[in-house]
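Running this now, will post back.
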Amino acid sequence: MVLIFVIAYRNSYVATTYRPFWLLLQMVVSAILAVIVQALYLSIYTAWVFGSIPMRRRSFWGYYGAYMLSILVPTLFLYYYYGGQMGRDDWVGLAVYGLFCILSPFAAGSIQRYNRKNRQLMQTNQRLTEIIK
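Update: finished.
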């Protein structure tokens, strides 16, 4: 399962035609692994992938909805299974982790936009330097 996740992770950056398939496969595999081995952290990788890919706003919100579903289903399942055994420290950790998961696609998109604008600015500066010479 981890190998499938790694392949889907790699291909979601590279593939253009099948990118939706690879992203959804990542979400499904991370949800399955979250239930089986409590590997909720794999969902953060998926968030950074679709958050950093330039796409239309409507596509982003579609991926974000699927991403939230892939986080909530395993979380609710684990809560149902382990909820009575959780202490206050566990709840605080879960809240911080949940907030990070919810906000990470937006952070990835912000970093990607900043890098793209910085590259464009450097290219413009190089053009201006060539023109001035």
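The mean pLDDT is 87. More later if anyone needs it.
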